[in-house]
Amino acid sequence: MIEMQDVWKTYPNGTHALQGVSVKIDRNEFVYVVGPSGAGKSTFMKLIYREETPTKGQISVGGFNIGKLKPRKIPYVRRNIGVVFQDFRLLPKLTAYENVAFAMEVIEAPKKVIKKRVPEVLELVGLRSKANREPSQLSGGEQQRIAIARAIVNNPSVIIADEPTGNLDPETSWGIMQLLDEINFRGTTIVMATHNRDIVNKMRKRVLAIENGNIVRDQVRGEYGYEF
User: Fold this and answer.
1) DSSP string spanning 41-107?
2) Whole-angstrom Cα distance, residue 165 to residue 199?
3) Dihedral of the alpha carbons of 81, 193, 89, 27, in degrees to the nearest 10
4) Facing residues of 64 across strands?
5) Which of 17, 64, 108, 222 is the most buried (most CB within 10 A)?
6) pLDDT of 14-63, one tens digit each?
7) What is the longest distance spanned by two Cα atoms in the chain?
8) Is the separation of the CB atoms in 163 and 45 below 8 Å?
9) Cβ–Cβ < 8 Å for 215, 184
10) Which H or E run contains 18?
11) Which among 21, 185, 1 is positioned nearest to 77, based on CA atoms?
């Protein structure tokens, strides 16, 4: 599903965020990306959904060469990649239903399809009863569930989750992780950057550890590892 071949990312200030990274992530895998702040985790994630482009090397997602995509192809590829952020990034004046529907409107999905699909996804994340509430009327955990619903509403092949539990308490975080695990079980590849040692150690998925722009550990059913 995702492959990086000798990928380098150097920013204009000379910082080498990634240095010769090569990795393959298969369809339906759940992968944690761990490491200290500034290690290159966020750059790794941004390269997958084409927020950044590599300085050198190749990245393919779902068979597309991400680094060499023509601008008109980028929206098409992004339809197959859902992104979940730490700070939710919901539109504050829209209801939960409207926030999720917006992701479908952007790709010009038919209104009939939107009306059918959005309630299904809200049901999956356990918030169908709060469809008409605005983000300010929802808890942090509920807002993140809406953000996840928005990320999956277009049936993406991949979800990129960048610290999705970073602003949540332990109990709420675990609920979010159970939801992501269910989405993965249904066939979606998930790549998640996190500092949450407890979650990584409890769920025992594949772990990629990044330090100084290099992958220093790649473990199946891995643990968080030593203190960063």
Assistant:
1) HHHHHHHHTTSS--SEEEEEETTEEGGG--GGGHHHHHTTEEEEETT----TTS-HHHHHHHHHHHT
2) 10
3) 20
4) 61
5) 17
6) 999 999 999 999 999 999 999 998 999 999 999 999 999 999 999 999 88
7) 51
8) no
9) no
10) strand 16-25
11) 1
How far is 49 from 195, CA to CA, in rounded Å?
21
What number of other Cβ atoms are within 10 A of residue 220's Cβ? 10
Phi/psi zone of residue 58: left (φ > 0), alpha (ψ -120 to 50 degrees), beta?
A: beta
- 3-state SS, residue 131: coil
Please say whether the dihedral angle defined by the alpha carbons of residues 66, 185, 169 and 209, taken in this order, is positive or negative.
negative
Outline where DSSP puts E strands in 70-211. Answer: 81-85, 158-162, 189-193, 206-211
- Residue 207 is encoded by which pair of tokens? 């772990």
Instruction: Please report which helix (H) or strand (E) contains residue 28, including its range.
Output: none
Q: Exposure pattern of 104-124 as b/e (b: 16+ CB <10 Å)? A: beeeebeeeebeebbeebbeb
User: Which residue(s) pair with 211 in the sheet?
Assistant: 214
Task: Write out pLDDT tens, residues 152-199.
Answer: 999 999 999 999 999 899 999 999 999 999 999 999 999 999 999 999
What sign for the dihedral angle of Cα 212, 26, 220, 205? positive
Go through the domains of the chain in sequence order and give each one's CATH number.
Answer: 1-80+196-228 (3.40.50.300)
> Which is nearest to 181 in space by CA: 210, 209, 202?
202
Task: Output the six-digit token pair for 58.
Answer: 């190749």
Place of tokens 């299904």: 120
